[in-house]
Design brief:
The chain is globular, with a radius of gyration of 26 Å. It has 3 helices and 43 strands. Helices cover about 5% and strands about 55% of the residues. By secondary structure, the chain is mainly beta. A hairpin with a 5-residue loop joins strand 33 and strand 34.
Length: about 725
């Protein structure tokens, strides 16, 4: 049930509370270690059977145990993705500490925020949460709402990733890794699913060796569609509907034990009708729509007079080669991504003809990487590398129709833009073990980026078709150079507990706005401090990971609306944030596993003078960052047991909660830009054959049918809102072969 809440005062004692929590955590860890030595002798056999498998991550560009890397990272393997029904990047929302994955926006984009840092959610701007697919950098988030296919894992790295994943990763990085074929055996799966709102999914993959232990191939494909849970009362059509198709071929060639080459070829297409509506009725957008109309929205009745749709077609090719020399490994890889996006938006979000837009975008990205990685286990471990990105963005046309402009005659604002970016970086990082317990890591990344933009525009009067204005073509270019270091100190309190502290810097280049009507924006920089604790206890049945962090941002890049239509990116002079987060996994018994997380976050603009929705000068200093909930928690449990010689039962559930959020940096007294807390409960029950080859599952998401706004964008000065999906039942059958 959606409820109205006014803004609460930010918890200024949050960092103090977090410190106390961390101290308590350390004390608990020490007590656990003492108990562990006693319990080991008493129940070592039972503990061994309940010990959890270690989780391997690639957060440091080499395979490491998750508990041994001095960064906060959440890892979701293929089984985690399946059990949590994570079908798109959006489905990660509320499942990773201190993250916010907003609802779908214009043209299929979605804003991803980590620890309060999110981007513009536009195809023209680049995000501070960097996404890598098979180690290739993806500069924009336009595919975050597309269906995921046959992934080995998703890693979410929180905090600035300076040295190794440094381009634009001031907020964090998300690493997606496609499943690879096995060189030794054939393997595959088929997944069929159906759910409410006319949702159907067919997904499968199969692969194996064509030449034993030398050459293997894997083919994967899926079709996913949904009719949607929202009805457009203006024309009776369904909103929140989508259809997505994706296919992939992956090949691995290993001519000997030291060399391996791989190639990935993928193509996808999708189309959607996004469900969004205006969420305020006053001219200053200060009053949310009445309770009676909220009930109408909750029932899935929206009103749009103009189309809300997008189509997305992309293809990418990745190729790589690695050779192990024994004392070091050489890795060379690269890729090409192209995408075509077309769509339209009812910008006013109502059944009245006030505001709409339509546009087309073309993207082409080349990536190149080379690195040398020393062998693991030596006193000194190091990595050096270089990377390059050539990014070509074109907007052949973008039309904004503002029917209320020019004294009611209406304004037809037409734009075309091209943005070319070249970015190069060299980096190095080394870790030296002074003792068996003390390690120090130092890294440095040097970056050079150049951007060149061309914008053409013409303004017409809608009612007469006459010329309103013909601004001169806008052309500009700029370059940036930065050298950003990172230092990490690690200390092992014992064989099962380690501490780390880091000082990191980050850099995100400036850029230009697609509509050329506002100045270019400056580069963004960050100074980040973090201290963490990681440990395994109770004979490996319990894993704990926690961190305190403090950030200082200069010229933080933000998204603002433009009154005539469109959006712009600008800078806040300075901002700070602090927080605490913790994750745990606990194998309570052979059959019962528990997991959870807690996150606290305190954000504030230290200095930010801008314009509010009424275009008056506003001092936003002291306001909270947008999409930055002050509290989040998750608690999950899974229970597995045999119910006969042939069948196995698997039960799982997760409850998640995030606190209230704002969706604008200004106008934070307005309820129209305020999102209430959201709590969701997901349940799943499955019966499997004892050999694990077949699984039949039923699930229900958002059991309590909690309903709230999960995204609000400024279209001109209109708040256009998206909402979380209501309660949904589903069923699926999975076969492994």
């Amino acid at each position: 049930m959606l409820t109205i809440k006014l803004r609460k005062a930010a918890p200024r004692s949050m960092l103090v509370s977090a410190v106390l929590l961390a101290l308590g955590w350390s004390a608990t860890s020490a007590a656990m270690e003492a108990n562990q030595s006693i319990s080991t002798a008493v129940a070592s056999t039972e503990a061994a059977s309940s010990m959890m498998e270690e989780v391997v991550v690639r957060a440091l560009r080499r395979s490491k145990d998750k508990m041994d890397v001095p960064v906060q990272v959440t890892v979701l393997g293929s089984e985690d993705l399946r059990k949590n029904d994570i079908l798109t990047m959006e489905d990660l929302d509320n499942k990773v500490p201190n993250t916010f994955f907003g609802g779908a926006g214009n043209y299929g984009g979605a804003i991803l925020a980590i620890r309060g840092i999110g981007g513009s959610g536009t195809v023209f701007g680049e995000e501070p949460v960097a996404t890598f697919v098979d180690d290739q950098y993806v500069p924009r988030n336009s595919n975050n709402t597309q269906a995921l296919l046959d992934l080995e894992s998703i890693e979410v790295l929180r905090g600035p990733q300076v040295t190794l994943y440094g381009r634009n990763a001031t907020g964090g990085a998300i690493l997606l890794r496609s499943a690879r074929p096995d060189l030794d055996k054939n393997a595959g799966y088929l997944r069929l699913g159906a759910a409410e709102f006319g949702e159907h999914r067919v997904e499968g993959a199969f692969g194996g060796p064509l030449v034993d232990e030398t050459f293997a191939i894997r083919v994967a494909g899926m079709v996913n569609r949904r009719d949607g849970w929202v009805t457009n009362t203006s024309n009776g059509e369904s909103l929140d509907q989508f259809e997505s198709k994706r296919g992939r071929v992956t090949m691995v060639w290993s001519p000997n034990d030291n060399a391996e080459a791989f190639a990935v070829l993928e193509k996808s297409s999708s189309s959607s009708r996004v469900a969004r509506t205006r969420y305020a009725i006053d001219t200053d957008n200060s009053i949310r729509i009445p309770r009676s109309e909220i009930k109408i929205l909750e029932a899935g009745k929206f009103s749009n007079d103009s189309p809300n749709f997008s189509s997305f077609d992309d293809q990418h090719f990745t190729v790589g080669y690695s050779y192990d020399f024994g004392d070091m490994e050489l890795v060379v890889d690269g890729g090409y991504l192209s995408a075509d996006i077309f769509g339209a938006t009812d910008s006013d979000g109502t059944g009245q003809q006030l505001f709409n837009n339509t546009g087309e975008f073309e993207i082409g990205v080349y990536t190149e990487n080379i690195r040398l990685v020393s062998a693991s286990g030596n006193r000194f471990e190091w990595i050096v590398g270089a990377s390059g990105v050539q990014d070509s963005f074109s907007m052949p046309y973008f039309y904004i129709n503002n029917f209320t402009a020019v004294g009611g005659l209406g304004g037809d604002f037409r734009y075309s833009s091209d943005l070319d970016t070249s970015a190069y970086a060299v980096y190095g990082e080394g870790t030296y073990s002074f003792t068996d317990r003390l390690r120090v890591t130092a890294g440095l990344r040097g970056t050079y980026e150049k951007k060149e933009v061309d914008v053409d525009s013409i303004f017409l009067i809608i009612s007469t078709g006459g010329l309103l204005a013909d601004p001169p073509n806008f052309h500009d270019e700029e370059s940036w150079t930065a050298f950003k270091p990172r230092v990490i100190v690690e200390y092992d309190l014992s064989e099962s507990t380690n501490l780390y502290a880091s000082v990191s810097t980050g850099f995100k280049s400036g850029g230009f706005n697609a509509f050329g009507q506002v100045p270019a924006y400056d580069e963004e920089t960050i100074l980040a401090y973090e201290a963490g604790l990681k440990g395994r206890y109770l004979d490996g049945r319990l894993e704990l990971s926690s961190a305190l962090f403090l950030y200082d941002y200069d010229d933080l890049q933000l998204r603002l609306g433009v009154p005539s239509g469109g959006i712009s990116i600008t800078n806040a002079a300075s901002a700070k944030l602090s927080g605490f987060e913790a994750e745990w996994r606990f194998q309570a018994t052979d059959n019962l596993a528990l997991n959870g997380s807690i996150a606290l976050l305190d954000t504030e603009f230290k200095k930010f003078v801008t314009r509010d929705l009424a275009q008056a000068i506003a001092d936003a200093s002291g306001n909270r960052l947008s999409r930055a909930p002050e509290t989040q928690f998750t608690f999950g449990a899974s229970y597995d047991r045999d119910i006969s010689k042939q069948l196995h039962l698997s039960l799982s559930g997760m409850v998640s909660n995030r606190g209230d959020v704002f969706f604008r940096e200004t106008d934070q007294d307005s309820k129209a830009w305020y999102g209430e807390p959201l709590t969701e409960l997901d349940l799943r029950a499955a019966v499997l054959t004892s050999d694990g080859k077949w699984e039949l599952a039923i699930y229900v998401q958002n059991v309590t049918n909690d309903f709230t706004m999960v995204a609000a964008e400024a279209q001109g000065d209109f708040p256009i809102a998206s909402f979380n999906e209501p309660r949904k039942y589903g069923i699926e059958i999975i076969g492994h072969f």
